[in-house]
Amino acid sequence: AQTVTQSQPEMSVQEAETVTLSCTYDTSESDYYLFWYKQPPSRQMILVIRQEAYKQQNATENRFSVNFQKAAKSFSLKISDSQLGDAAMYFCAYRSGAYNQGGKLIFGQGTELSVKP
Amino acid sequence: KAGVTQTPRYLIKTRGQQVTLSCSPISGHRSVSWYQQTPGQGLQFLFEYFSETQRNKGNFPGRFSGRQFSNSRSEMNVSTLELGDSALYLCASSSTSLAYNEQFFGPGTRLTVL
Questions:
Q1: Residue B112 DSSP SS3
Q2: Chain B residues touching A109 at Cβ < 8 A
């Protein structure tokens, strides 16, 4: 069975600084997708960034980028130029590419990020 | 385009009762997934429906069930409620059931079991 582990329950960053959130996963599959989701307090979960396992190039979305190390099964999220609005719970998630797995997302326990002004 | 909506937003029930939660996906989306979020267990997958068929089911007891209607709206039902069922229940919709499609989450239904 696949598992996702986020070893940092809480992280803090100064506004305008850079922070990296860690995520490791375990799978025997070769076809899968990895995601970072953001859940602000009392607000809806939104997708931050997505990485296809077959792509070697790390995904980037504006200030958000990932460091995808497939052999190490590591998938960290880097937030550059942190803003107050980045404060939220961040979840790392795994999704199998197998057709019979459908839409099932497997989530890590989350990392609560606070941003200091 | 309207987002995923969930009703009701808050519910208080007592042990032994049953509850039905509703999820309306984004227009045109045919896949709806349900998740339970608790402080202790985190986010756990309940089940997914696509075109009125359950495609996948998580490791939850049979008290948890769901269905999807022809307009893609989905309901989940929990019978014989237990205190441990208190949670935020999230639904997410996607255009298809394929892995690369983004799932869009609703605001959730906060269920409290007394």
A1: strand
A2: 42
A96: which chain B residues are within 8 Å (Cβ-Cβ)?
A: 99
Which residue on chain A is closest to B59 by alpha carbon?
A104
* Helix, strand, or coil (residue A115): strand
SS3 category, B25: coil
Q: Is the pLDDT at B100 greater than 80, yes or no?
A: no
Q: What is the pLDDT of residues A70-101, one digit of tens each?
A: 999 999 999 999 999 999 999 999 999 887 77
**How confident is the model over B36-91, as pLDDT tens digits?**
999 999 999 999 999 999 999 999 999 999 999 999 999 999 999 999 999 999 99
- Measured CA to CA, the distance from residue A21 to residue A111 in angstroms comes to 7
What phi-psi label fits residue A42: left (phi over 0), alpha (psi between -120 and 50 degrees) or beta? left
Are the Cβ atoms of A97 and B56 closer than 8 angstroms? Answer: no
Q: What amino acid occupies position A48? A: V
Asked if A44's CB is within 8 angstroms of B107's CB, the reply is yes
Q: Does B102 touch chain A (CB under 8 A)?
A: yes
d(CA B99, CA B114): 37
